[in-house]
Amino acid sequence: MSGASRTERLGSERVGKLLAEMSAQTTFSLLVYAIYSITDTYFLSVGVNSLAAAGASIISPVLIALGGVATIVGVGGASVVSRALGAENAERASRTVANTHLIFWTVALSITVAGVLFIEPLVYLLGATDTIAPYAVEYGRIIFLGAITATGYSAIVRADGNVRYSTALWVIPVAVNVVLSWVFVMVLHWGAAGAALATVLGQAVSAVMSFYFFFLRKGRSYDIRLAYFIPDWAIIGEVLMIGLPSFLKSISAGLVVIVTNNLLRVLGGDSALGVYAIAGRLYAALGIPQAGIVQGMQPLVGYNFGRRRFERVMRAITLSLRASVVYGLLASALCLLFPAALIGLISTEPAILAEGQTALRLLSLAYPLSGVAILVAAYFQSLGKAKEALLLTLGGMLLVKIPVLLLAARLFGVNGIWASEVTSEAILCAVALLMLRHEQAKAALGWSVGPV
After folding, report:
1. 3-class state of residue 224 by DSSP
2. What is the enclosing helix (H) or strand (E) of 80?
3. What is the DSSP code string of 81-101?
4. Which residue segment(s) compose the domain that 382 sits in?
5. What is the spatial distance between Cα 395 and Cα 287, in angstroms, rounded to a whole number?
6. Residue 80 falls inside a structural domain
7. What is the pLDDT of residues 368-390, one digit of tens each?
8. Separation CA 23–CA 290 (nearest Å)
9. Tens digit of pLDDT for each residue in 401-450?
10. Rounded CA gap, 202 and 97, in Å?
11. What is the spatial distance between Cα 65 and Cα 68, in angstroms, rounded to a whole number?
């Protein structure tokens, strides 16, 4: 199927069918990554010890920050590309792709230099104890050195309608990562450094695949010329503005992790940090399908908004919200009924198994609500409404999640930290739905209706 045919499907086939297809494939991609994340933690927990797993968890805000850089060019670029393709402006789409590469390479190199120079004081700032810090430094130094490989172009590939290749961009590198992690940690006993090296090499495979897709593949929708890499400040500004909410969401999510780690260090020490490394990883992994729904929805909304087929836009967000809530209920039920079995997938230490069940149960109460705010924020991003998306993402983290977390920890200790997630998500859900209702009321007055 040609690039044009794939993108035209976004405006012609049934919204429900397209959403199911694109969400399923993106969810599959993300679930593969979640499997890697869980197995990586398992290798460190069993192949080394829970302190090594906690050390890798301490570095997670760094990975979140790198993911934020990738996301700002991925989400921002995908929004611009989707609308450009919908408006049949292939040159603008090509210029956008070139400029997203330029942004990412510049920022990633800067992060590498800063991270390598300041890794040791950084791990203590992130919440490491004296016993966990050596593992965090060992793991983090290699992650920083490989920052340039942490590409974020799968969203732009999906904007082209090429969901299969977007899926491959996740599946193949993650498969390489899992195999190498097993070899380096379980067979060669390279410890935290081995796990980090496997991560960087897996990312390098993704980088090579992205380069092939955009610059070497036949039948591509983009004709990227060398001249397009000259900074186009209008496009760069639009990409950054639209992607900024996702970037700041990632950065603020990293800040939440840093605050959580430091609270756990004070209230529970190494044991609590070990539980967070395990239960927090499971919580994030089981929430992956909701992120898949978000990523499946965005090309549909962006393309049809560009085509001025507004009823299809409304249908996409409605179906996405329903799917996210239903999945959240199922995920919550699974964690409430079988917490010991889930924790046992990653750790065999008795203390982690005992304390992790309570943590996972309390965290899982947030699942039915946790997809709503990110879906509505992604909806605003796809429409090019960066301010609204920014309010939900950055505002939600700084004005809701962190204050609720600090208050809950002060009042209820470690269990308050786990329970704060459902409280903050309930507040964000209510705000997001009010904003969506207001936007749809304005849309009813100003949007014309096209074919579904």
Report:
1. coil
2. helix 60-86
3. HHHHHHTT-HHHHHHHHHHHH
4. 3-446
5. 21
6. yes
7. 999 899 899 888 877 878 788 88
8. 9
9. 999 999 999 999 999 999 999 999 999 999 999 998 888 777 665 554 44
10. 23
11. 5
For 381, the token pair is 């991003």
Rounded-to-integer distance, Cα 302 and Cα 10, Å: 10
Q: Domain for residue 325, yes or no?
A: yes
Residue 271's CB: how many other CB atoms inside 10 A?
A: 16
Q: Which residue has the higher pLDDT, 162 or 198?
A: 198
Q: Please count the structural domains in the chain.
A: 1
Compute CA 284 distance to the chain's CA centroid, rounded to the nearest angstrom: 10
The tokens of 68 are what? 């934020």
Per-residue CA distances from 76 to 107, 108, 158, 302, 381 (Å):
15, 17, 13, 11, 8
Q: Give the C-alpha separation, 390 to 386, whole Å.
A: 6
In this structure, of 3-17, 27-41, 323-337, the range with the lowest mean pLDDT score is: 3-17
Q: Is residue 359 part of a domain?
A: yes
Which of the two residues, 175 and 35, has the higher pLDDT score?
175
Distance, C-alpha 23 to centroid of its chain: 14
**Tokens matching residue 270:** 């190494």
Q: Is residue 452 part of a domain?
A: no
CB 57 within 8 A of CB 136: no
Nearest to 215 by CA among 228, 225, 206: 225
Q: Give, for 418, the enclosing helix (H) or strand (E).
A: helix 402-446
- Alpha-carbon span 452 to 349, nearest angstrom: 54
Confidence of residue 11 (pLDDT cuts 50, 70, 90): low
Residue 13, C-beta contacts closer than 8 angstroms, at least 6 positions apart: none
| Residues shown for the chain | 452
